[in-house]
Amino acid sequence: MNQEAYRRELEYLIQYAYDDWLGFSVVSGTVGGLLGRGASFEVRLGLLLRIVGDLQDAGARPGDLTESTSEPFLPWRADKAEAFTRIAAEVERHSRLPDSGDVCWFTVP
């Protein structure tokens, strides 16, 4: 994988999380774009989790969208390691890269 392409894609995802709620369909699409066709689930999962960790390092927090107009995003009450473990377990349980709404959303609060 081209590291410069990874950096550009990560910058895009970070900016997205600053501007709006970032769903997993966008992150999963980034993984597919960076790896192309034919990568195993394990390889795709590894890249997905790398991106999740880098997003968290950049200030994005995982959470859930709510019906509330006053609090439309509810961040998880978990530190980085706990959130990372939860996301990894959820993705592995689905046995595929998640779509938006499957696991969580990301935003910079």
Count of DSSP H/I helices: 4
Strand content: 5-15%
Please give the share of residues in helix. 55-70%
Describe the strand arrangement of the main beta sheet, using strand numbers: 1-4-2-3
N-to-C CA distance: 31 Å
Low-confidence stretches: none
Instruction: Give the integer mean of the pLDDT values.
Output: 93
Compute the number of strand runs.
Answer: 4
Shape type: globular
State the major sheet: 4 strands, antiparallel
SSE class:
alpha+beta
Give Rg in angstroms.
Answer: 13 Å
Topology as a string of helices (H) and strands (E):
HEHHEEHE
Keywords:
about 110 residues, alpha+beta, 4-stranded antiparallel β-sheet, 4 helices, globular
Structural notes for this entry:
With 109 residues, the chain is an alpha+beta fold. The protein is built from four helices and four strands. It has helices at residues 3-19, 24-35, 41-57, 80-94, and strands at residues 22-23, 61-65, 73-75, 105-107. A hairpin with a 7-residue loop joins strand 2 and strand 3 (73-75). The radius of gyration is 13 Å and the shape is globular. It starts with a helix and ends with a strand. The model has no long low-confidence stretch (mean pLDDT 93).
